[in-house]
């Protein structure tokens, strides 16, 4: 029944019960302590009055002379003065010489409570006792009456304060005590309600069962993700990870990671810098446990406070594989689109010439097209026997013609000795980016009729590609910045600025270089140098 109750109600009941129990316990203890303290205080008061009375000269003389009348007057006066219940004076045998009830004078003090006062009459010690006599229950202080000259014990003084006096005081204080206890309990319940309300808001109004279900769903989602995920808290301690993270990093699945500092597991992850700066970091190439990764790092915020960092990562080889596939598809699409568009236009022209019976012109056009393509194919077969690179150049040639431009490949170009381990997909991506940029720059500057020149050579220890355009050129102050991510010189190109950045990344990995220079008059030249043996190294 209790488990079906709302969390807020459960918290209020639980906290209220705990507060009530604590408050009642404190109240009972305080009441007991108050009662015990009051009884002790009354006893000590009775003892003090009895000692004072026993040491009074008038009492000593009255006991010595057995002046019953004088002692009773003195006892009555002392009783009123000290607000006592009674003051009884006895001789050295405990026989009453003074008592509030005259009929009890001359009788033993032991008649009431069985206490003859031996500790006072024999041992000479004052003490406190609680007993019930003819005047009711009382706290009694008893002290010996001692002859000053001889030190002889000649009598005893007993001073009593009624227990009902103590009870009245306890009731008076108890009312205040229990009022405070009640108010404390009420305040505790109100605080419990406030705490329960804030706690409920902190967990977005969810019930424990819902939180448990969400946790299970989160864990299932986390484990199903094919990227490795690791999260740390504000102290740099690992709080969350999935199986893919262990597999990707080559860590034993039985290795406990939760609760361990990230610096002990992945000191090269640089998550602490994101924790300090609060700046997200995406698509960063890093080495983790001697494996090249593509890493995304995102700070976790609670309001304005950074409470942790979540990192996702996967092997760069997997990303490269997808990139290679996309590159090939894009190349094929560009080639087919360009050829389809161009041949459609040519066929329409030939069809029109035939319809107007200009057969010679149609044959000349067909011959020219065949001759141009045969020359290009012959050049590519001779100069670039690699089918991937040749296919890329054929596609760019057709795209240039579609744009109304010319892509001229130097007839003296040779690109035969290409290293087998050089990634073809990345090479054609770099070369394609340079040619595309050159075509766009030329078209923007000259319109249709412009040209882009390409020359290639594999002599010596390097592969050299030169791409010349007829564009506006590149300002000297921007020639190095254009290789930065997101930087572009194209007007209104919000989504550009990544092609040359990819070129720079490839060059860094392979160990190549690129130069940029403006040509006399108009245009620019990009020269790409690639060693036939990789000399680069990936960096963080």
Q: Any descriptors?
A:
540 residues; alpha+beta; Beta-Lactamase; Heat Shock Protein 90; five-stranded antiparallel beta sheet; 15 helices
Kindly describe this structure.
There is one protein chain. About 0% of the residues have low confidence. This protein has a 5-stranded antiparallel beta sheet. A hairpin with a 6-residue loop joins strand 4 and strand 5. The protein has 3 domains: about 160 residues, Beta-Lactamase (2-Layer Sandwich), CATH 3.30.450; about 90 residues, Beta-Lactamase; about 170 residues, 2-Layer Sandwich (Heat Shock Protein 90), CATH 3.30.565. The two termini are about 60 Å apart. By secondary structure, the protein is of the alpha+beta class.
List the helices and strands and how they pair.
Elements: H1 7-55, H2 57-65, H3 68-81, E1 86-91, E2 96-98, H4 110-113, H5 118-121, E3 127-133, E4 136-146, E5 153-162, H6 163-202, H7 208-224, E6 228-233, E7 238-241, H8 243-249, H9 262-265, H10 271-277, E8 281-288, E9 291-302, E10 305-315, H11 316-355, H12 359-383, H13 387-402, E11 406-409, H14 424-446, E12 451-457, E13 462-468, H15 499-510, E14 513-518, E15 524-531
Parallel strand pairs: 11-12
Antiparallel strand pairs: 1-2, 1-5, 3-4, 4-5, 6-7, 6-10, 8-9, 9-10, 12-13, 13-15, 14-15
Helix pairs in contact: 1-6, 2-3, 11-12, 11-13, 11-14, 13-14, 14-15
Percent helix, as a range, is 40-55%
β-sheet strand percentage: 15-25%
What is the count of helical runs?
15
| Number of strand elements | 15
What is the CATH class designation of the largest domain? Alpha Beta
- C-alpha end-to-end distance: 58 Å
Find the CATH topology of the largest domain.
Heat Shock Protein 90
Shape descriptor: rod-shaped
Strand order of the main beta sheet, please? Answer: 2-1-5-4-3
Mean pLDDT score: 79
The structure class reads: alpha+beta
* Low-confidence spans: 492-496
Largest sheet: 5 strands, antiparallel
Q: Any idea what the CATH superfamily of the largest domain is called? A: Histidine kinase-like ATPase, C-terminal domain
Number of domains: 3
CATH architecture of the largest domain: 2-Layer Sandwich
Report the order of strands and helices. Answer: HHHEEHHEEEHHEEHHHEEEHHHEHEEHEE
| Alpha-carbon Rg, integer | 53 Å
């Amino acid at each position: 029944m209790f488990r079906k109750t709302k969390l807020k109600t459960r918290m209020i009941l639980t906290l209220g019960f705990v507060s009530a129990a604590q408050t009642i316990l404190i109240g009972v203890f305080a009441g007991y302590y108050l009662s015990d303290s009051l009884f002790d205080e009354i006893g000590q008061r009775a003892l003090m009055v009895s000692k004072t009375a026993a040491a009074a000269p008038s009492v000593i003389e009255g006991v010595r002379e057995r002046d019953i009348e004088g002692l009773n007057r003195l006892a009555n006066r002392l009783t009123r003065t000290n607000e006592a219940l009674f003051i009884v004076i006895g001789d050295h045998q405990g026989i009453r010489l003074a008592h509030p009830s005259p009929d009890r004078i001359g009788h033993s003090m032991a008649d009431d409570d069985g206490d003859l006062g031996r500790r006072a009459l024999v041992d000479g010690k004052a003490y406190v006792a609680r007993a019930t006599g003819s005047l009711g229950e009382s706290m009694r202080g008893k002290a010996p009456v001692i002859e000053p000259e001889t030190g002889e014990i000649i009598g005893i003084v007993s001073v009593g304060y009624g227990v009902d006096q103590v009870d009245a005081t306890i009731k008076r204080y108890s009312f205040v005590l229990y009022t405070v206890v009640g108010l404390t309990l009420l305040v505790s319940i109100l605080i419990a309600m406030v705490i329960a309300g804030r706690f409920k808001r902190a967990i977005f109004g969810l019930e424990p069962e819902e939180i448990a279900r969400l946790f299970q769903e989160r864990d299932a989602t986390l484990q199903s993700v094919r990227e490795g995920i690791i999260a740390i808290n504000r102290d740099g301690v690992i709080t969350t990870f999935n199986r893919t993270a262990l597999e990707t990093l080559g860590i034993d699945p039985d290795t406990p990671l939760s609760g361990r500092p990230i610096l002990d597991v992945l000191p090269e992850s640089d998550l602490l810098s994101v924790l300090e700066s609060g700046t997200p970091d995406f698509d960063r190439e890093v080495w983790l446990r001697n494996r090249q990764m593509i890493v995304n790092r995102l700070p976790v915020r609670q309001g304005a406070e950074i409470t942790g960092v979540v990192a996702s990562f996967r092997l760069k080889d997997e990303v490269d594989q997808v990139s290679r596939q996309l590159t090939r598809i894009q190349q094929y699409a560009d080639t087919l689109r360009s050829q389809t568009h161009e041949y459609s236009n040519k066929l329409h022209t030939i069809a029109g010439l035939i319809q107007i019976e200009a057969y010679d012109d149609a044959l000349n056009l067909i011959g020219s097209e065949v001759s141009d393509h045969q020359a290009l194919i012959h050049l590519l077969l001779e100069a670039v026997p690699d089918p991937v690179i040749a296919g890329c150049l054929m596609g760019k040639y057709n795209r240039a013609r579609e744009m109304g431009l010319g892509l001229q490949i130097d007839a003296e170009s040779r690109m035969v000795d290409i290293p087998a381990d050089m990634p073809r997909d990345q090479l054609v991506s770099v070369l394609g980016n340079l040619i595309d940029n050159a075509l766009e720059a030329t078209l923007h500057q000259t319109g249709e009729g412009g040209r882009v020149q390409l020359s290639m050579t594999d002599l010596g220890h390097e592969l050299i590609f030169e791409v010349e355009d007829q564009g506006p050129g590149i300002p000297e102050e921007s020639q190095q910045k254009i290789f930065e991510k997101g930087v572009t010189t194209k007007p209104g190109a919000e989504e550009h600025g990544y092609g040359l950045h990819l070129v720079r990344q490839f060059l860094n990995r392979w160990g190549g270089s690129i130069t940029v220079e403006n040509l006399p008059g108009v245009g620019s030249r990009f020269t790409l140098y690639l060693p036939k043996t990789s000399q680069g190294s990936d960096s963080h």
